[in-house]
Recover the amino acids of this structure.
């Protein structure tokens, strides 16, 4: 079992729809959770971070964290073709030097 | 504001050759990281440096060495390159990690390395 798991996709949604990206993690002591967006051939860039249970909203993006279920998600409202990218979930462990573990990423395709 | 700068951007090596990938950050960050990214594997941590003067192994350290030259610079060395090390390498930096205040990472543009 991978420490951070994501569905590889591709996830295809029509323009204007809500895209829902999911991530599960195995280390119960994990403290912090990040979503990065990576365009093809480019480096990852931070989209959202969340530390506490519940929802966190930033513009069209909402991160949701449920530590009891070891589950973190990213919702993208009013999806645009420019949102087409790979989304990486990243988790910082609670022990072992606070290493960041990345999921393999979910490819999102927004159809115009 | 350059952020995290990696050199070179592309490199082709022959099996057995050695080379050093360079990384520098201008954000006064304490922590620096080296990752490799392979198709379907996501980012895997090779080595990291929590602060100047310290380095630690990540998930896939075999075949690599690192040097934290100063607060700004963190280099990755392949002593004897192997085809399995063909990958895209990313350097990243962040403010110091501590309980309750974990910080996101800022990435360089990557080095695309091919080993024949």
């Amino acid at each position: 079992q991978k420490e951070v798991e994501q569905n590889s996709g591709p996830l295809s949604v029509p323009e204007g729809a809500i895209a829902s990206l999911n991530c599960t993690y195995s280390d119960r002591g994990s403290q912090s959770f990040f979503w990065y967006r990576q365009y093809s051939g480019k480096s990852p860039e931070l989209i959202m971070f969340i530390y506490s249970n519940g929802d966190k909203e930033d513009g069209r993006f909402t991160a949701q964290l449920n530590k009891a279920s070891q589950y973190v998600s990213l919702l993208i409202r009013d999806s645009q073709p420019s949102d087409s990218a790979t989304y990486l979930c990243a988790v910082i462990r609670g022990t072992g030097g606070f290493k960041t573990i990345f999921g393999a990423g979910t490819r999102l395709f927004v159809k115009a | 504001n350059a952020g995290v700068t990696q050199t070179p951007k592309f490199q082709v090596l022959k099996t057995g050759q050695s080379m050093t990938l360079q990384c520098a950050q201008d954000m006064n960050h304490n922590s620096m990281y080296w990752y490799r990214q392979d198709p379907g594997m996501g980012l895997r941590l090779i080595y990291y440096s929590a602060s100047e003067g310290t380095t630690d192994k990540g998930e896939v350290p075999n075949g690599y060495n690192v040097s934290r030259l100063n607060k700004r610079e963190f280099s990755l060395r392949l002593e004897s390159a192997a085809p399995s090390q063909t990958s895209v390498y990313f350097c990243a930096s962040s403010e110091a990690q501590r309980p309750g205040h974990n910080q996101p990472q800022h990435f360089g543009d990557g080095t695309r390395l091919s080993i024949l």
The CA atoms of residues 69 and 75 of chain A lie 18 Å apart. Chain A touches chain B at residues 4, 8, 31-32, 34, 42-46, 49, 51, 88, 90, 92, 97-105 (CB under 8 Å). Chain A has no helices and eleven strands. Chain A has a mean pLDDT of 92.
